[in-house]
Amino acid sequence: MFKRVKPKRVSETGTHACSIRQFPHCDQRILHAPTECEYCDMHSEWQDLRIAWGIAFTGYEPEGKELPCPADHARGDNHTKWSGNTAKPLTLHTHLGGKNVSGCPACEAEQ
Questions:
Q1: 20 burial level (CB within 10 Å; 0-12, 13-18, 19+)
Q2: What is the pLDDT of residues 33-58, one digit of tens each?
């Protein structure tokens, strides 16, 4: 059962007291683990809450008393079929031609 009460408005402009500017992915239930997705990492407080509340991150099986990820629970892995919902790791560098460049710390870490 869901509580069906609309949140109170702060002003006549229609903004809520606790507005969420943007979710990291198209399916708002998706939240990837820290360092796995640059978009989810912009919401570290949400990642902290998932850990504190004992909710598994997207793509992970719950362990012990942990609850499943809401997106995984609702849709299985069907949410991964659309690129807007997949993890986007932070790209620290890009080099033309895909070749490693000497002196680049990111390239050296890949070797």
A1: exposed
A2: 999 998 899 899 999 999 999 999 99
Tell me which residue has tokens 């796995």: 36
- The rounded distance, in Å, linking the Cα atoms of 66 and 54 is 5
Rounded to two decimals, the pTM is: 0.66
Closest listed residue to residue 62, CA positions, set 40, 88, 30, 70 = 70
Burial 61-90 (b: 16+ CB within 10 A, else e): eeeeebeebbbbeebeeebbeeeebebbee
| Structure confidence by residue, pLDDT tens digits, 3-31 | 777 766 665 555 555 566 777 788 788 99
Judge contact between 90 and 41, C-beta under 8 A: yes
